[in-house]
Amino acid sequence: MPKGGLARRVTWAKQELAAAQGPVVVVDAGSSLLGEYVALKSEGRVMVEAMNLAQYDAMAVGRMDVLLGFDVLQERAAEASFAILSANIVDTETQELLFEPYVIVERDGVSIGILGISDQEVLSMPATRSAAAFLDPIETAQRYVSELREQVDVVIVLSRLALADNEALAAEVPGINVIIGGKTRRLVQEPRRVDDALITEMSYNGERCGKLTVFVGADGAPYDYVQQVVALTQDWPDDPETAELLDEYRRRYPVLE
Amino acid sequence: MRIRHRVQIVGALLLLAMALTGCQQPAEPTARVTLGPPPPPTIAHTATPEVATAVIPTPSPASATTVPTSTPTPQRPEQGIALTVLHTNDVNGYIDPCG
Questions:
Q1: Which of A27-36, A115-124, B23-32 has the lowest mean pLDDT?
Q2: Interface membership of A27 toward B (CB under 8 Å)
Q3: N or C: which end of chain A has fewer CB within 10 A?
Q4: CA A198 from centroid of its chain's CA atoms
Q5: pLDDT at residue A103 greater than cutoff 80
Q6: Which is higher by pLDDT, B74 or A134?
Q7: Does A5 sit within 8 Å of B33, measured CB to CB?
Q8: Beta-sheet pairing, A192-194 with B81-88
Q9: How many Å lie between the alpha carbon of B23 and the closest alpha carbon of chain A?
């Protein structure tokens, strides 16, 4: 039975946000904007517009987001109402970051720092190979998590590293509360805990969404959590606004038979 | 007569018990599934069921208005935080269901 679909995902996000009775953030761990035909033809615009409707707060830069080069993704970042983050991809010549490293979100009196960490595959595309350099993820995370810890109550890392590498990240970088991963495309039913960090990811192709509620004590460490895995089956209705948006893009970029 | 006397005594005891306990139902275990480890003893006092029920969304707005004491308030850092993270990854540009 097919699962996923942008219009169902927006329904899920809107429903969760409407029912929320405490602070909520909506994030994506990256490699999400490009790949499938309409998304590719629209240079990721259809995905960004739908994610705007779902009120995403941030996403990380992954391999599939830079298929058309950094310039195209920077254009999408300018159009997005959410932050597109990477703390460890820098311009080869200037050594300046190509994207924002982190964003701080305030929700219901709680400040949340969200950091983006890319993997080296971002530089494996023909369009990106010579344009940028890759900084060590752990050293980069140590620097920015330390900086964030002085400003926020909770730190979330959106990471393109493999699951085992995310465990190393959690072990070597104190101060991280949650790591949302993706590279291994695993369905992590129960978050893994390494020191004070919870690590999870939700398979691939938008088939499933995760809802992780983490309880953080006054000492800054999580003491409990609940994760719900949501399979976007046909039981989830399409969000009408998103369905209309998708129809418009399908008309604009018809699939040739 | 002896039976009637016993009934009166039992009835009096029941009335006394009701007066002492009121109409409260015995507390039932919460239905929330906790996947994580139990809270450390040093901060166990913050891991109250009220925190959990206050932050996990309840679909019926009516229940919040009929039980004012359960109306949620934002969790402040000094009391501990309950943050919900809605998350996705590796969508690969899929706009339609697949699989």
A1: B23-32
A2: yes
A3: C
A4: 16
A5: yes
A6: A134
A7: no
A8: unpaired
A9: 29
